[in-house]
Amino acid sequence: MRTSSEEKDSEKEKLNPNRWLQGHPSQQFNVIRRVYQQDALNKDADYQVPKKPLSYRCKRAVQSCGFGECLLNSLPIAKWLPRYSPKKFLVGDLVAGATTAVMHIPQGMAYALLAEVPPIVGLYMAFFPVLIYVIFGTSPHVSMGTFAVACLMAGKVVTQHSVHPELITAVNSTTTESKYY
């Protein structure tokens, strides 16, 4: 027959077979596990970051930077225009604008002809990108405008899909002579 101390030792052996726990088994825990870095854990667990809806992401972006700061980051003109000094910069900016216009206006008209569209479209392409870049652009050293490769590609598409006037024949015609006069 076993004594009560042998039974207790046998019970302890069942609870602590490798003798990891010393003292009272109910008061200590020994956890053996692999040490993970976050990337390895995510990979092993097949974890993927849940996608948030666009409205939530936009709301968080506006809340995180504040409305005024968000507006300044979206419209750079709102940041530099209040600090603009016309006495210092106006003459230089006018010269730079005139130089850019002298280059872009004829170039835009020529590229419009190259693209087989009316020259007024070239004027639009010389003026509006620069105007929009003033509002949304972040670099003062950029000259926006048309370029030849895009015009050649556009011209090819326009030529393929346009209707030439010499191919159109008159179908409806009226005469002034009538039998019933």
UniProtKB/TrEMBL annotation:
Where is the chain membrane-spanning? 89-105, 117-136
> Where does the SLC26A/SulP transporter domain lie?
90-161
Please tell me where this protein is predominantly located.
membrane
Where is this chain's protein located in or outside the cell? Membrane
Query: Which is a Pfam family this sequence falls into?
Result: Sulfate_transp
Assigned keywords, A-Z: Membrane, Transmembrane, Transmembrane helix
Look up the record and report any one GO term of the cellular component aspect: membrane
Q: Does the keyword Ligase apply?
A: no
Chain positions covered by the region annotation Disordered: 1-20
Please identify the protein, giving its name as recorded: Jg27179 protein
Native source species: Pararge aegeria aegeria
Task: Tell me the gene name.
Answer: jg27179
